[in-house]
Amino acid sequence: MPRRPKNKNKEKHKGAISEFSTVKAAALFNVTRATIYRWRKDKEKLKEATKEAPNKYFAPSEPTKPQYTLYPELETR
Fold first, then answer.
1. What phi, psi does 56 have (nearest 5°)?
2. CA gap 12, 38 in Å, rounded
3. How far is CA 35 from CA 9, 16, 66, 76, in A?
4. Where is this region: Disordered (predicted)?
5. DSSP for 32-72?
6. Is 58 exposed, middle or buried (0-12, 13-18, 19+ CB in 10 A)?
7. Burial code of 13-43, b = ≥16 C-beta within 10 A, e = fewer?
C-alpha cells in the first residue's frame, strides 16, 4: 500500500482543460462531478504545478471551512 498519493498533476490538468461535459469528463477520469468542478476552478494552479513539480502531490492552497467546537465548555480549562 502506498504511503502517499500517486502523482495526479498531469491527470488533473487534463481533466480541467478537457472539452467534454462535466459528466463525461468525470466518467472518463473516474472521479465525481464535484472533483471536475474543483479541478476547473484550480486550472491555473494545476498548470503551474504540472510544469514545476510533475512528481509531487498537488493540494489546493485555499483555506478550508472553519471547524466549530461541538461542546465549547469542554474546551475551556
1. -110, 160
2. 10
3. 13, 10, 21, 38
4. 49-77
5. -HHHHHHHHHTHHHHHHHHHH-TTS-----SPPPPPPPS-H
6. buried
7. bebbebeeebeebbeebebeeebbebbbebe
Residue found by looking up cell 502531490 in the block: 57
Binned at pLDDT 50, 70 and 90, residue 17 comes out as confident
- Cell readout for 13 is 490538468
Give the span between the Cα atoms of 15 and 8, in whole angstroms: 10
Whole-model pTM above 0.85? Answer: no
Q: Dump pLDDT digits (tens) for 54-73.
A: 555 555 555 666 777 788 78
- 33 within 8 A of 21, measured Cβ to Cβ: no
* Cell reading at 60: 489546493
